[in-house]
Amino acid sequence: MNRDLIAFTPERALASAAAELTWVQLPAPVVVAIRRLFLDWVASALAGSTSIQVTRLSQAAARGGLGIGGSPCAEGEKGTATALPRFAQAPALVAALLNGASSHVEEMDDLHNESIYHPGTCVFPAALAVAESEGAGPRDFLTAAVAGYEVSLRVGQALGSEHYRYFHTTGTAGTVGAAVAAGHLLGLDTQEMLSAIGSAGTQAAGLWQFLADGAMSKQLHTAKAAFNGVLSAYLAGEGFTGSAEILLGEKGLLPGMARSEGTGGITDDGALRRRQRQALMEGLEEVPGSPLPDYGFAAFKTPEVSIKYHASCRHTHPAVDALLLIMEEHGLAAERIRSIHAHVNTAAFDLLKDATASGPWAAKFSIPFCLAQAALCGSLGVDSFSVSALEDPRLVELMNRVTTDVDPSLDADYPRRWVAWVDVETVSGSTFQARVDAPKGDPDNALSAEELEAKFRLLSRRLLDDESVGRLLATLAALMELGRMSELLRGFQGPVDG
Length: 498
Prior knowledge:
Layout: H1 10-20, H2 28-48, H3 52-63, E1 80-83, E2 88-91, H4 92-102, H5 120-134, H6 138-164, H7 169-185, H8 190-203, H9 217-237, H10 253-257, H11 270-281, E3 284-286, E4 295-297, H12 317-329, E5 337-344, H13 346-352, H14 367-377, H15 387-390, H16 393-399, E6 402-406, E7 420-426, E8 431-436, H17 449-460, H18 466-477
Parallel strand pairs: 5-6
Antiparallel strand pairs: 1-2, 3-4, 5-7, 7-8
Helix pairs in contact: 1-6, 1-7, 1-8, 2-4, 2-17, 3-4, 4-5, 4-9, 5-6, 5-7, 5-9, 6-7, 6-11, 7-8, 7-9, 8-9, 12-14, 14-16, 17-18
């Protein structure tokens, strides 16, 4: 095909870079990052797999004819993949659906600041399902995952905070990331990858309204992102075409789902579109000497992704860290606290201001709950969110002494940096203040290997016994020695009743 006939679009550049990405092109820091992120995702998926959200989703899928197998499969079958919590074989689409929901329950999955997006919970379940189904090995799997991360992180950044006010970016950008990862494993060429992105973009969805009543929609967002991404890749592989300009086309994702502040509606603002185009193309460059206008990744964004330390909405983390810093530095016990006042950015305030601790899961979005519980426990792990915690009179009383407001100065660096500061007044009248610019888990304040392993063990024990956790850790450490990704979860056993 004459290269002069190939119209340049950011969509095609992304499709080209993703389709042509190879293992040998990945710099060592990217390989280290994606392996750490995968280990972290596995733990989150195990921890959330027996939740009520995943149980209900599995029951609904089975009622519609998309049930999982009755027992683990020793050898695996073509077209099937492992579905948690039973480690049973299921169609790849079903495994992606259930594992996508599982990994977003405990709010411990990874997060990229600038895109305001949890990539792992969408990309990894799609990639693992297709890798198992197709008999792919670890290098192909990890390369596909990087491709999914790289494309969707740019899509998330292009969508920006204008989009995030109404839409859960993990459900929207994540659908594209899942499609790219699955498409890479299926060997899609650039044109087919472009169709996969097109089909994914037209299915992208997820609204924040569920926070108003603590509904289960957040896990549905990630489940369907993984499911729809895999479906989009399969469709493209069968010649089913998708829009070639789904991102920036006149009626595409970005014009339709990203709003400028103060317009009160959809905008075609030129400055916004230029920023979005620039975000999509960040770190991409044309491959010299290619017969067609092909593109590659000159810079990688995957190492920018954070690994979460607290089991709550990431917007609560800077304030939680600031409070814990005050308590540690001044030897302050919760009983000595008269009041806590958190100062957060506008996005955090708008998202969480109406969140109430109506249940253990909803409490993950309540700043008063998170700060009060962190003060009482000295941490904010998965066990901090329980019915018994919500009924603790000490917690309830301390929550009533937590207030939150917006500090507009914190908006300047958002979403590149998520910053908060906290004022604490003691019963004796002393006041202390702390500010956190890089919450625990950010690349600038990263978890150590020991901290990451400790997090893995804590989360994995919600499904597996200690011996199984140790065995899985060892397998993940030796991941590159596996012949196929279907060997990773072979031999593990979950609850018999699912």
